[in-house]
Design brief:
This protein has helices spanning 12-17, 20-31, 34-42, 49-62, 65-73, 98-116, 133-143, 148-171. By secondary structure, the protein is mostly helical. It has two domains: 12-69 and 166-180, UraD-like; 77-164, no CATH class. Helix 2 crosses helix 3 and helix 2 (20-31) packs across helix 8. The longest helix is centred in the last third of the chain and has 24 residues, at 148-171. The protein is elongated, with a radius of gyration of 17 Å. Mean pLDDT is 83; it is low at 84-96.
């Protein structure tokens, strides 16, 4: 599920010019880590979008496991908010009514959390094919076979994908939108 960002389509040039406090706020919306947002704001200006994405990945992969746990705590649990997996039952490839789908997701997520000690995190695409409960259930089932160390690496990669998606939305198209000029 896409999170609501207050800073959407800022544009790279405008982002680079934001006062540090505002840049940290915009980055925090994307990365859910004050330390990470501060580090990324300090290393401005970025020459291009890819530079910001590379910097975000570098900072993320250098964080301690405790910091990763804090980031994960900021993500909603699977199925914990309405519409978090899909907004229409017709999109769900399971033929169960919505309460049953949400129950299946809750059971799978609980099993995952019991196995690994933290909540399931997954970046899902924006298209209907990537945004189904079946996809999420299959991913949980598949990742249950990982050992804890491998799963921690998978989670970092999923957080990196989430960060990238949110940073892309924050920056918007080249030049940003006119409302930030």
């Amino acid at each position: 599920m896409m999170s609501v960002l207050l800073h959407q389509g800022v544009g790279l040039e405008a982002f680079n010019r934001l006062p540090t406090r505002k840049a940290v706020h915009a980055l925090y919306e994307c990365v859910n880590s004050v330390a990470m947002a501060v580090d990324l704001a300090k290393t401005r200006p970025y020459a291009d979008h890819a530079g910001l994405y590379r910097a975000a990945d570098a900072v993320l992969f250098a964080l301690s496991e405790d910091s990763i746990d804090d980031i994960m705590a900021a993500h909603p649990g699977v199925g914990s908010r309405p519409g978090s997996i899909h907004s229409q039952c017709e999109q769900c490839s399971l033929n169960d009514p919505r309460p049953e789908v949400m129950r299946l997701l809750a059971v799978a997520a609980r099993g995952y959390a019991e196995r690994f000690g933290f909540e399931f995190v997954m970046q899902v695409g924006r298209t209907g094919a990537d945004f189904t409960s079946t996809t999420v259930l299959a991913a949980i089932d598949d990742r249950m076979h990982n050992d804890p160390e491998t799963e921690r690496k998978v989670v970092r990669n999923e957080i990196a994908k989430l960060n990238r998606s949110r940073l892309e939305r924050m920056l918007g198209p080249r030049g940003g939108y006119n409302n930030w000029v």
